[in-house]
Amino acid sequence: MQSDVKKSGRLIKAPENFLVKDDAKSPELMRRKFLAASVSSAAASMAAMGLAGSARAAAPVSGDGDPNILNLPAHSTGLGQPVAANPYGIPSQYEKGLQRRESPGLTRVSAASVAFTPLQGTFGIITPSGLHFERHHQGWWDIDPSKHRLMVMGLVKNPKVYTMDDIMRLPSVSRIHFIECGANTAMEWGNVAVPTVQYSHGMVSCSEFTGVPLSVLLEDCGIDMKTAKYVLGEGADGSSMTRTIPLDRALDDAIVAYGMNGEMLRPENGYPLRLVIPGVQGVSWVKWLRRIEVGDQKWATKDEAVHYIDLMPDGLHRQYTGIQETKSVITTPSGGQTLLDKGFYNISGLAWSGRGKIKRVDVSVDGGRNWRTARLETPVLSKAFTRFNIDWVWNGGPAILQSRAQDDTGYVQPKINQLREVRGTRSIYHQNAIQSWRVAESGEVSNVQVY
Ligand code: MTE
Questions:
Q1: What does the pLDDT average to over 417-434?
Q2: Closest listed residue to residue 121, CA positions, set 247, 11, 283, 252
């Protein structure tokens, strides 16, 4: 097929864009089915374009060219659809394959599971709201905002109960931040586990959040700065999600948010109110926020004493490890995609740091022997996605693509073996190692680990 397709720099999308749940159970079956389907669909579309046969494919003769440019289609001659045909806009029917997806069999019930963001199919740094990853411990709810209340209590002079209207009258800020579940890339601690970037890294998204700085609410209730040391956030769902937040972080850049990407939060992401704790793992971004308590010690709730702890090689647990360290991943070309021909490719990916801005991203195409510095696209914001791009001419031989990010504290993203030396292999959370994608001579891209 490759010699017939003279489209330098084109690639076949990752297979999960087109497959049903059952197929995803076996990556190998998935790959074979996908390749078979793509060979026949590529052949069919080439035939439809009059490109069957390598001579024509290489150089369409004028007068016998591509009907897609020679013939006027219906949309150029007829009347299109009226305004507001979709009162709330939806993506093109041709983009249906780009979806959040649940990894089959990951959890026993889908209400306590994850739907991963398709990082391989998004551009820039903002994750569309409908593709923002979801992680619920006990399902999501569409809560009536007129009945939702937020109680602020504990070490404050004036404990208060706020309605949504009360909160939305207060001074607001809008800031772009990534949110990453501490368990993102967890399945790769021991070895390669999943085929595509959606499943390996898709528990991270980046949005513009709007809301009231937590510091404003705490001040409004008269926080007792002499005794206060921690803040507890509690959600209104059945999971009893409660998390301790150190006071300096709560007063720094934390937001009690109601907006996401210019509109109200989506129900799956905490409508009508959630915590935004920039740089900190997603579990602390309590959704459906109903209570804030100010205290003088950590609460050691179930989601910080039993879960979200790191099992170290000596058998002890690390607790309260909130910050998401510098990480990056190449999103295209990435696992499950197939490069159609040698030639020019734009290697593109995302980098982020829970400690500040991304300073630099280096990219290797030979498994880490040589590195080149990628272009960082603007804006480069603190605790937000940074998009990087770098040119690459694929010579058709085997290659291993990697990205290595550095943030403005000087911290450099580690290799997987460096991380394992410190953390062992039995951890779940905070896996921020360099990701490797192997490009085979056939053009198929797969997930590998390079030490
Ligand atoms: N808040 C409540 N109330 N209930 C939850 O199950 N899940 C947490 C956090 N906040 C959760 C919650 C976890 S583990 C993560 S990673 C993030 O929400 C995910 O946020 P998202 O679903 O908006 O991506």
A1: 93
A2: 11
Testing ligand 1's pocket by substitution, the residue of 119, 181, 324 carrying the most ligand atoms inside 8 A of its CB is: 181
Binding site membership of 273 for ligand 1 (Cβ less than 6 Å): no
Tens digit of each residue's pLDDT (9 = 90 or more) over 267-302: 999 999 999 999 999 999 999 999 999 999 999 999
Locate tokens 């197929």: which residue? 23
Length of the chain: 451
CA quadruple 207, 115, 199, 95: dihedral sign: negative
**How far, in Å, CA of 293 to CA of 42, rounded?**
59
User: DSSP string of 314-380?
Assistant: TSPEE----B---EEEEEES-TT-EE-SSEEEEEEEEEE-TTS-EEEEEEESBTTSS-EEPEEPSP-
What average pLDDT does the structure give for the chain?
89
285 lines ligand 1 (CB under 6 A): yes
Q: What gap in Å lies between CA 417 and CA 86, rounded to an integer? A: 50
Question: Is the whole-model pTM more than 0.85?
Answer: yes
Ligand 1 pocket, residue 135 CB under 6 Å: yes
Which residue's CA lies nearest to atom 14 of ligand 1? Answer: 283
For residues 127 and 260, give the distance between their C-alpha atoms in angstroms, rounded to a whole number.
10
- Among 171, 255, 163, 273, smallest CA distance to 213 is for 255
328 contacts 363 by C-beta, under 8 angstroms: no
CA atoms within 13 Å, Cβ hemisphere of 138: 10
Q: Say if residues 336 and 24 touch (Cβ distance below 8 Å).
A: no
Residue nearest to atom 13 of ligand 1 (CA): 283
Report which of 261, 242, 300 is spatially closest to residue 179, judged by C-alpha positions.
261
- Look at residue 12 and give its three-state secondary structure: strand
* SS3 state of residue 68: helix
**Residue 327 near ligand 1, beta carbon < 6 Å:** no
Q: Is 397 exposed, middle or buried (0-12, 13-18, 19+ CB in 10 A)?
A: exposed
Q: What are phi and psi of 421, to 5 degrees?
A: -60, -35
